[in-house]
């Protein structure tokens, strides 16, 4: 047992850090530090810089453009990207549909889609949830009827993040309505967003931002070569994708960066002539959060080390712990940041507003963004399998209840 | 980064778990036995932290973690923490060559049970609050005062007693540490069982005379030594707590699967499933922090080390309390009985939380330190 990073791993961390500092667009970085989401253009530009370097899809097998790094190095890379902060890879491509295609897809699908995911030539979105199917995903109703060498798809997807930017959507669709169990008779289809019959309706979230959409599919024709894996066995792909997702939603590096920033802000804000960070109640809450974050960081390393030992493609069910605690900590940071903003937290604005757009400011930018960020971050305990679903997974898969 | 145990460490774990399970089989009777203590010695457990040239095994924090976790699982009450972890720590960090060699040998052989007599009645968790006085004389020192809640203070042959040689109560400087023969003239002990059944004692020193070479570490410089050793004790206690918590978790899950109400196992009810899941999360987070404490206990920067150890005690205290309380709740009535073993774990967990500073005490320390070192290096 040796719990330290090796000198080589530490050197690698420095290498990643320097690369990001030298190559990330300054405006993108400034916007993210302030608390804005990076724009589509900023995400694409950064992904292409990474792709040029060979770092676009570090978790993929080397033969499909991965780096062949150890699991620990990949962890360090992800942490450095989040902690800088720099835009993260578009999860729907790199972490979700990419690995599904690699694991279940045909040679043609791999050749056609993987390089375009790596270079973000195709922007992907996720067609899983439906109005009647949230946590009970397998109850989904969107239907795909086979008609010669194509499927005719009808139905509705919802909560679709960044569908307004998307070139492609991967969808779970019902191909056999007669199947015995709800999980059977589902297939995993790749659908071109430009296909006739695909329409969007934006959903404005409680923070006022435009992030998610409803996606309507009316007699959309999808060629059968866009089926991934075996027809009616799409649930295998879905399960595989969701367990990958759990690992990536902990976002510990990002929370570390937000915590570092919050500590800085709380030492600048004063109340009764003293820095807020010296207020015992506030300092205790910060310390509490920092301790839980440290515990989660070690838990994540333990989960990764286990996965490394047990072989690839078999995510540890303990990754549910990461999703649960990781998202709770993300929320607590936003709560404390809003608290730090004080009454000026009331001066909320849209998360999509450009950096520093309000020059004649009523409150500093971070205070204006505190409330919408707090509102928006409530999503994290809901998506990727709600935290209650994660508790079900722990109870059933780990504890055997 | 490697969380695996070596073959040697795995062997150690298996041996200690076997030993602890055997101890478990003994029904009632005294809390611990000298006979088993001898077995510990034969296995080399009592020589674990001492350097090879002192007759020890030269092992470190990871091996201590392994032993303590197994002891937690088996509810071992032998004075290992007091004698080997704390006593051993004082010898390694504070004693001159002659004293160290002598005492290490006698501890390793199982001849000597040692304990630290430090806490005083008014001190709560503040380590610098020492009033017991040590007056320098021509022959050595005269110690006068009272020490409270000394674990295994009833039977220990060797006491490490903190005393004030200079300065006022609460002052960091002026605290000295002495080795005191528990049978010396003027030492009286009031033995009693602590809340978890571990033997303890109040120890009164009435003008106890000790020679000049009974001083452990520098005169007036004892606090840093006590703090250092306390950190090692906390790291070890965190590992023990993980053993205790995992036992309570296992018992609870097993009970949820077998106990039937309304015609089905109560573990089929989601309200209880989610509680069990929360207990699992609490355990895993505590385990991570026990590992963290083990990793950081040898850190050379004292401020970084202190904050890290405090952070571990916070997590273990909170999560252990949570797991204990939930384990009793989920067991229902049977969890309330003296006869059922769960209660013994719950009480041990509670005792651990009260030792060397509770969760709130250590949370405040982390807050005052401005947080934790960000990167694991």
Strand order of the largest sheet of chain B: 1-4-5-8
Overall pLDDT score of chain B: 94
Most extensive interface, residues per chain?
A: A-B, 47 and 46 residues
Low-confidence stretches of chain A: none
The number of E-state strands of chain B comes to 10
Question: Could you tell me the strand content of chain B as a percent range?
Answer: 15-25%
- Beta-strand residue percentage of chain A: 5-15%
Poorly predicted runs of chain B: none
In this structure, how is the largest beta sheet of chain A organized?
A: 4 strands, mixed
Distance between the termini of chain B: 10 Å
Structural class of chain B: alpha+beta
Helical fraction of chain A equals: 40-55%
Name the average pLDDT of chain A. 93
Shape of chain A: globular
Describe the strand arrangement of the main beta sheet of chain A, using strand numbers: 1-4-5-8
What would the principal axes of the Cα set say about the shape of chain B? globular
Helix proportion of residues of chain B, in percent?
Answer: 40-55%
User: Number of helical segments of chain B?
Assistant: 10
| Biggest sheet descriptor of chain B | 4 strands, mixed
Any overview of this molecule?
The complex is a heterodimer of chains A (401) and B (377). Chain A is built from 12 helices and 10 strands. In chain A, the strands form 3 sheets. A 4-stranded mixed sheet of chain A has the order 1-4-5-8. In chain A, strands 2-3-7-6 form a 4-stranded antiparallel sheet, with no helix packed on it. Chain A is globular and about 75 Å long. With 401 residues, chain A is an alpha+beta fold. The mean pLDDT of chain B is 94. Helix content of chain B is 50%, strand content 16%. In chain B, the strands form 3 sheets. In chain B, strands 1-4-5-8 form a 4-stranded mixed sheet, covered by helices on one side. A 4-stranded antiparallel sheet of chain B has the order 2-3-7-6, with no helix packed on it. The radius of gyration of chain B is 21 Å and the shape is globular. In chain B, helix 1 (7-25) packs parallel to helix 3 (61-74), helix 6 (222-258) packs antiparallel against helix 9 (342-354) and helix 8 packs antiparallel against helix 9. Chain B has 377 residues and is an alpha+beta fold. The interface between A and B is large, with 47 and 46 residues.
